[in-house]
Design goal:
With about 425 residues, the chain is an alpha/beta fold. About 30% of the residues lie in helices and about 25% in strands. Helix 1 (about 20-30) packs parallel to helix 2 (about 50-60), helix 4 packs parallel to helix 6 (about 165-175) and helix 8 packs parallel to helix 10 (about 310-320). The protein binds uridine-diphosphate-2(N-acetylglucosaminyl) butyric acid (EPU).
Length: about 425
């Protein structure tokens, strides 16, 4: 297994391009199942999660060709609506195969993925939506068997305990495309990634109203066709580079069409006194060179609120900022696995239920340590901490990071970071010598 070795303390300067958004690209690739015609998808990030979904799609009969590293030709001429456990267990996003199978052929048999480190992640709202469309849903031997042969458009409220659901909205939206008549989804998620999916579906010929709002109107049973589509830039990657500039006191210009970094994030950056500007063409300039940052309070919420996928990175940032900050998780109340690791580097963060109370300091330096990555965004937070820490940081289980950040080491090195990958075996060998 690979381990990241970071020698911290270097200011990061220069220009970096963010990749296509993983969370937009995953459902878009799945939505290619909705037509038997060929779709060309551009700006596909080269990530292990994307390779996993492509394997799953191949497994159900989809033909996939790489035109180049970031452009795919996807053709689902004939498909088998059955996704087995072995294919699905590695990635939760594969649950949105259900909606695409229902939208295309009115039935679906998809194994439910297992547990997830960042929280329970149930799919009760997805099931509620399918049932409202008139599907019968049955759990059999770990598979969710859904029969949607008589789906009829309906009014569906998709809000839950934690607000709207991103993948649930994608799922019910795609299923509704196969229903007779009009479906209205209320309390729909409208994260930029859902908007991107809707725009892709529209390009395929779907008739969807209310895109970018919490109420989507979907006209079912219009035949969809192939198309060419470019996935949006990754706003979480952009947010991570903003934190990297601020934490290392460098200056980073971020390109790649990531202008979907939400106002909630800019608002917090302004509140802490950070110099981060978005130019008219969508380029972001994050300048940490002359800063004197202040603490703040952050609450993660569904869009347009502060994104949970930047919570860990901001915990790392705020631990280097003078004053007490409070970060509250309202999407995944237990998504704090990075906190004990940050504390091992000298941060002072207390967890109280779903709140992280951060006693930040700009003068007390974090110190390098051996750390364990637990999930994608936690890994990013540990990287950020390692980049500004004194001495060497070793991050184990770094495959979590590779699920969602394309060439992250290389991009950071191009900005001046001192990072390399080694392996557990090499580390053990060094210890023995
Ligand atoms: N929820 C329910 N019932 C449901 C569905 C969701 O209670 O039927 C709860 C979840 O447990 C959670 C909240 O609602 O507490 C929001 O979950 P949502 O369904 O919106 O999350 P998701 O679609 O499974 C996507 C992203 C996540 C991101 C969340 C929130 C993808 C592939 N994943 O997950 O991204 O954190 O939305 O914005 O798009 C990541 O990239 O690191 C990541 C975890």
């Amino acid at each position: 297994m690979e381990v990241a070795r970071i020698i911290g303390g270097r200011e990061l300067h220069g220009e970096v391009w963010v990749s296509g958004s993983k969370n937009a690209c995953l459902p878009i690739l799945v939505a290619c199942l909705l037509t038997e015609e060929e779709c060309i998808i551009e700006n596909v990030p080269n990530l292990s999660d994307i390779r996993l979904i492509l394997d799953i799609l191949r497994n159900v009969g989809v033909n996939i060709e790489y035109i180049d590293t970031h452009t795919l030709k996807v053709c689902a001429a004939a498909i088998n609506p059955h996704a087995p456990y072995d294919a699905v267990k590695k990635m939760r996003a594969s649950v949105c195969l259900m909606g695409a199978f229902l939208g295309r052929i009115g039935r679906s048999s998809v194994s439910l993925p297992g547990g997830c480190i960042i929280g329970q992640r149930p799919i009760d709202l997805h099931i509620k939506g399918f049932k409202k469309l008139g599907c019968t849903v049955e759990m059999k031997n770990g598979y969710l068997e859904v029969d949607g042969s008589n789906m009829v458009g309906s009014r569906i409220f998709l809000g839950g305990r934690y607000g709207s659901t991103v993948t649930g909205t994608a799922n019910v939206l795609m299923a509704a495309l196969g229903a007779q008549g009009v479906t209205i989804i209320e309390s729909a998620a409208y994260e930029p990634e859902i908007v991107d999916l809707c725009l892709f579906l529209r390009r395929q010929g779907a008739i969807i109203g209310g895109i970018g709002t919490s109420m989507l109107t979907i006209e079912g049973r219009h035949k969809l066709h192939g198309c060419r589509y470019r996935v949006i830039g990754d706003r979480v990657e952009a947010g991570t580079f903003i934190c990297a500039a601020l934490m290392t006191r460098g200056r980073i210009t971020i390109r790649g069409n990531a202008q979907n970094v939400s106002s909630a994030v800019y608002d917090k950056l302004e509140e802490i006194g950070a110099d981060v500007r978005e130019l008219e063409d969508g380029t972001i300039v994050a300048d940490g060179t002359k800063q004197n940052l202040r603490s703040t309070e952050i609450i993660t919420l569904p869009y347009p609120g502060f994104p949970t996928d930047l919570q860990a990175q901001f915990c790392a940032l705020l631990s280097c900022v003078d004053g007490i900050s409070v970060v509250s998780e309202r999407i995944y109340p237990t998504r704090f696995m990075h906190i004990p690791e940050l504390n091992r580097m000298g941060a002072s963060i207390m967890l109280e239920e779903s709140h992280a109370i951060i006693h930040g300091s700009s003068s007390r330096k974090l110190t390098g340590a051996q750390l364990m990555a637990s999930d994608l965004r936690a890994s990013a937070a540990l990287y950020l901490a390692g980049l500004c820490a004194e001495n060497e940081t070793l991050i184990h289980r770094i495959y979590h990071l590779d699920r969602g950040y394309e060439n992250f080491d290389e991009k950071l090195r191009s900005l001046g970071a001192n990072i390399e990958r080694t392996t557990e075996t090499d580390l053990e060998r060094c210890e023995l010598n």
